[in-house]
Amino acid sequence: MMQKFLILIGALFLSANLSAQNLSIYCEDVRPAQYIGVDGKLAGFAVEIVQEIQKRVGNKDLIQMVPWARGIEKLKHEPNSLLFSMARTAERDSQYQWIGPISETTYGLYVKANSPIKINNLDDAKHAGVIGIYRGDVRDQILTQLGFTNLDRANSNIFSFRKLMLGRVAMYADAPIAVKSLVESEGYKPTDVKLAYTFFRTQLYIATSKKTNPAIVEQWNKALEKMKKESVFVNIYKNNYPDIDPPGPTINKFE
């Protein structure tokens, strides 16, 4: 009995100690996962997931919205730092610690509805015109690794999408749900764009720096797993993405 009591006390002490450690929590502005709402507050599916985890582990640190490149730099140099939502890829896998997955998606090449572009494979895409992408994002990394030289890099998804609609680029690379959100926010109709080719599928995570205390990563992962078992996770997911299935089992083998 005494041994069980001491183990319980130790667990409570460890939990309290982890909760007392300050975390630097960052996200980028990517609708509809995370964005600034009309009330000036952070909103979106990923924000709700992170805030629920924070509540469960007793963390009260503020989530800071920063440009993606700055968030990556923070992960490289700051201990106990987190950034979401990040695609987990072969290149990134060993660079960070991971909490999740919290969602999964595909990335495709989108064109204007009246575009004559036809893409049957990646080689077609390399010669079909200029592709607008978000600078430094996983789409940029993947297409660059695949040998694409026809990439137009912008500092935000909105800028790239606007270039597509203004005819300044031939294609725009993004996820279906993000394109839908951009179409709505920019005042277009869903029928104004169409998917030309899907080139990548990935799961999205909360990434942490290598210098983050592994016990914190484990604590957050356990809280997330409990949310999933209690259906809290799926309820938040479906409230935000009613027509999209929640992420499946963890993918940790990469092509």
Mean pLDDT metric: 91
Count of the domains: 2
Principal-axis shape equals globular
Q: What is the CATH class of the largest domain? A: Alpha Beta
Range of helix content: 40-55%
Could you tell me how far the N terminus lies from the C terminus, measured between alpha carbons in angstroms? Answer: 50 Å
CATH topology of the largest domain: D-Maltodextrin-Binding Protein, domain 2
Provide the gyration radius in Å: 20 Å
| Class computed from helices, strands and strand pairing | alpha/beta
Looking at CATH, the homologous superfamily of the largest domain is: Periplasmic binding protein-like II
Helix count equals: 10
Architecture of the largest domain in CATH? 3-Layer(aba) Sandwich
The major sheet is characterized as: 8 strands, mixed
Q: What fraction of the residues are assigned to beta strands by DSSP?
A: 15-25%
- How many distinct beta strands? 10
What is the subunit arrangement here?
single chain
- The order of strands across the largest sheet is 4-1-5-10-6-9-7-8
Query: Spans with pLDDT under 50 lasting ≥5 residues?
Result: 4-16
The sequence of SSEs as H and E is HEEEHEHEHEHEHEHEHEHH
